[in-house]
Specification:
Elements lengths: L4 E2 L6 E6 L1 H4 L5 E7 L4 E4 L4 E9 L2 E5 L2 E6 L12 E5 L5 E5 L3 E9 L7 E4 L5 E4 L6 E7 L10 E7 L4 E2 L4 E2 L1 E4 L3 E3 L1 E9 L6 E5 L6 E4 L6 E4 L6 E2 L5 E9 L8 E2 L8
Antiparallel strand pairs: 1-22, 2-3, 3-10, 4-9, 5-8, 5-10, 6-7, 6-9, 8-11, 12-13, 13-14, 14-24, 15-23, 16-25, 17-18, 19-22, 19-24, 20-21, 20-23
Length: about 260
């Protein structure tokens, strides 16, 4: 089984480079770049679409010969403002040159191609509340099912307040049994405020053949190949995560853990 908790490989440059082969699955890829002003990130993915998310900072962006100019607005992810994002079709080269300190996520999944380069945000993304009580969190739906902007990718941001639970009640999406359930691999890119603190995430199956509890730090990534995957922000710590999901069908259908069905 692949390691579920991934630490950054460095403090700058491409600090995460998670491929399907590396993760031990078939669909989701995730790269993360941390750039100083003037530094550049580039890429080109054959047979795979990508959504570029400017998590923090600004950069001059170009893709498939289209110059988008400077993208990005929030300089701190915990501002909770909608992110600037860009869809890039398979085989299209892209580049980003940072104009401020910049954190850039590259979310990818298989695609037959045919879609154009498309700006996905901030227009069309509105912060929404989900849950109640200490299960309340705030969502920026970048490319979920309701937006026909990708062939495979489902991408969203979640802001979890101090002392709250998230991806909760525990739920799973690890079987291709549409419309009851869909198979979706998933990555969580975590950020924490203060950044030297930690969060908690558990990934487990009904039979507990997979059962790992992790303490992700700032800039860590957690892989969810199957099973339930709730997480929590300790008191005094805000948690952000960027979710990337993909599978054979671009639909998010899940089942809640039966022990927690009473709080839906």
């Amino acid at each position: 089984m692949a390691r579920l908790l991934r630490k950054p490989a460095a403090t700058s440059g491409r600090i995460h480079a998670i491929t399907p082969d590396d993760a031990g699955w078939s669909f989701v890829g995730f790269d993360l770049w941390r750039l100083a002003p003037g530094e550049q990130a580039t890429g080109q993915l054959d047979g795979r679409e990508a959504i570029l998310v400017l998590v923090e900072g600004r950069a001059q962006i170009a893709a498939d010969g289209v110059r988008l100019g400077e993208m990005g607005a929030r300089l701190d992810v915990f501002e909770r403002t909608p992110p600037h994002c860009l869809y890039v079709p398979p085989a299209a080269p892209w580049q980003a040159r940072a104009t401020t300190p910049c954190t850039l996520a590259i979310c990818s999944a298989p695609s037959p191609g045919g879609r154009p380069v498309q700006v996905l945000g901030p227009d069309g993304i509105t912060l929404e509340s989900r849950g109640r009580g200490t299960n309340t969190r705030y969502i920026n739906n970048i490319a979920m099912e309701a937006r026909d902007v990708a062939d495979s990718l489902l991408v969203t941001e979640v802001f979890t307040p101090s002392g709250h639970w998230s991806s909760y009640p525990p739920h799973r999406h690890d079987e291709d049994d549409y419309p009851a359930l869909t198979y979706l691999e998933e990555t969580y890119y975590h950020r924490l405020n203060p950044p030297d603190c930690f969060g908690i995430q558990r990934v487990f199956t009904d039979d507990q053949s997979l059962d790992e509890t992790m303490a992700p730090a700032d800039h860590d990534v957690v892989l969810v190949p199957r099973g339930y995957h709730p997480c929590a922000a300790p008191y005094g710590v805000e948690m952000y995560y960027l979710n990337v999901m993909a599978g054979p069908r671009r639909a998010w259908r899940f089942q809640t853990h039966p022990a927690f069905a009473h709080i839906i």
